[in-house]
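U., I forgot to send this yesterday:
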Amino acid sequence: MSSYGNINNNRRFVLTDDQINLLKEAFDLFDMEKTGQIDFHELKLTLKAFGFKVSKEEMFIIKKKLDPDETNKINFEQFINYMTEKFSERNPQEEAMLAFDLFDEEKKGKINLKNLKKAVKEINENLSDTELKAIIEEFDKDGDGYITKEDFLKIMNDYYFD
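Result:
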């Protein structure tokens, strides 16, 4: 686990190593001149890429908060601390439903082998049909060959949420 965190509702939110690595890659992508800083337009693009909608007014407030010297730049530590704050505001149940919707391309309320195979391919994982079928069988509570939203939420609750 990372050392980057945010106190939220009397609990400390901590980014995972994977999240930190993704954020570092995003930061480095925009820090083309390797100055160790990005500007606020690049921050807004990063926020959008991670699914955060930010208005011009919100960006003005963010800039005022993170850039009191008006350099129009932030460093990686400021960036990671701000992104930790943004991630801590997310609702895990809503995030799980968004993830489910990415799998459920046909919007049928269930994930089948074809959906799972496509998603796994997109993230460059090499799992055989046998392995994918085993995943479905393990989490398919009613035995119909699909992972429903309810099955998916149960998986997320059992493995990822408190």
